[in-house]
Every structure is written in structure tokens, then in C-alpha cells.
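Work Package 4 report. The design task specified in the project plan requires that, given a folded chain encoded as C-alpha cells, an amino acid be chosen for each position. We show below one input record used in the internal validation round.
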């Protein structure tokens, strides 16, 4: 299946279990792999036959910068559901939500989740 990949989308959100996360917020990074048939767009060279990357960014932004959630798992799931509602040609999606430096003990770069969803799951 064809893929559109958007990497390192950065947003500022207020997701987390701890009050300081909800109050102060932090940066989140999102990677997306959208699976769809791009053959018509490849032949026509028309944006109307593909998925608009800018619109994809805005959908992800509306979730990550929207209502605070406890878990990044919930952030990823809402992004998936909203993408399927927005883009009729989207057949499957992989979403990685990365949370740099969450407030838990230890030394590491980030915590992240990655989910994969198919359209039939979303309906």
C-alpha cells in the first residue's frame, strides 16, 4: 500500500497524569504514516486526488493542542479516529506520539506510544 509520511510534527499540549503537566504543558512530537492509494494522484498530479499534508497537520494539531488527556495512548487514538473522519481515502494509519522528558524517575530521552489502525476498526 502507498504511504504518506509526516515526521516530527511538533505541538505544545497539556497531557499527563500529574497536575504540573496539565498546568505547565510540554512539547509533543508526532510521526504519521497514512496508507492510501496514491496511484491516481501520481497520474493526475492534482492535490484533490491525494491527502493534503497541511490538513493532516491541522487535524493532528487540533488533538494534541486540544483537550488535555491523561494518556498519550488516548491522544494517539483520537488522532486516528479524527483522521479517518476527515480523509475518506485513508485506509490505515500508524501514529507515534512522543513525550520528551515525562516527569518519572530515571534518565532517558522520551516516552512514546505507537498505534496502527485500519479504517474498518474506526467505523
Amino acid at each position: 500500500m502507498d504511504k504518506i509520511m509526516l515526521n516530527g510534527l511538533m505541538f505544545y499540549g497539556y497531557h499527563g497524569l500529574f497536575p504540573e503537566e496539565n498546568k505547565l504543558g510540554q512539547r509533543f512530537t508526532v510521526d504519521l504514516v497514512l496508507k492510501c492509494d496514491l496511484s491516481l494522484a501520481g497520474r493526475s498530479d492534482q492535490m484533490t486526488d491525494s491527502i493534503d499534508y497541511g490538513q493532516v497537520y491541522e487535524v493532528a494539531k487540533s488533538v494534541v493542542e486540544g483537550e488535555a488527556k491523561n494518556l498519550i495512548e488516548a491522544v494517539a487514538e483520537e488522532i486516528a479516529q479524527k483522521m479517518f473522519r476527515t480523509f475518506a481515502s485513508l485506509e490505515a494509519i500508524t501514529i507515534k506520539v512522543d513525550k520528551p522528558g515525562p516527569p518519572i524517575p530515571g534518565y532517558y530521552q522520551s516516552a512514546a506510544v505507537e498505534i496502527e489502525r485500519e479504517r474498518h476498526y474506526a467505523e
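The radius of gyration is 15 Å. Validation will be extended to a larger panel in the next phase.
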